[in-house]
Amino acid sequence: MTHEELKNTLTAILPSSSFDETGEFLTVIVPSEDLLPFMTELRSNTGLDFDYLFCLTCIDWKDHLMMVYHLMSKTHKHALVIKAKLTNREDPQIETVCHIWRTAEFHEREVFDLFGVKFINHPDLRRIFLDDDWDGFPLRKDYVDENMIEI
What we know:
- The chain is α/β, with parallel strands linked by helices.
- The protein has helices at residues 3-13, 35-44, 104-115; strands at residues 18-20, 27-30, 52-60, 65-73, 78-86, 93-95, 118-120.
- The chain has a domain at 3-90: Beta Polymerase, domain 2.
């Protein structure tokens, strides 16, 4: 599917989505509350068949967090990036997608551990790298550690 065909199909699924075509992949920005039904459709729609989640991460933009998901269809050979903005920095939450793509389970635990994003309905949401009593989230831009070197 071309980027234009993907855009038309995705707009039909979620009219409130918007697009960014400045990078290597077509990027669709979706409201965080629409993420789970949108992702479910991307996986189950045979015309799209996004069967492979190859990257899931978070970006700290200081005033909000952005969840980023990279998907690929091994059947149709197309790729897509999905972004969802989390505006509540004090208690960032979003639905898990690990029941759609099993690879998300550890990716989500990593984002939870290092950014503090809570994945609603995740089956085993706990720290993966840091000790349970670690204070703060090291990949956030406002994180301060007494051992950090300032440049």
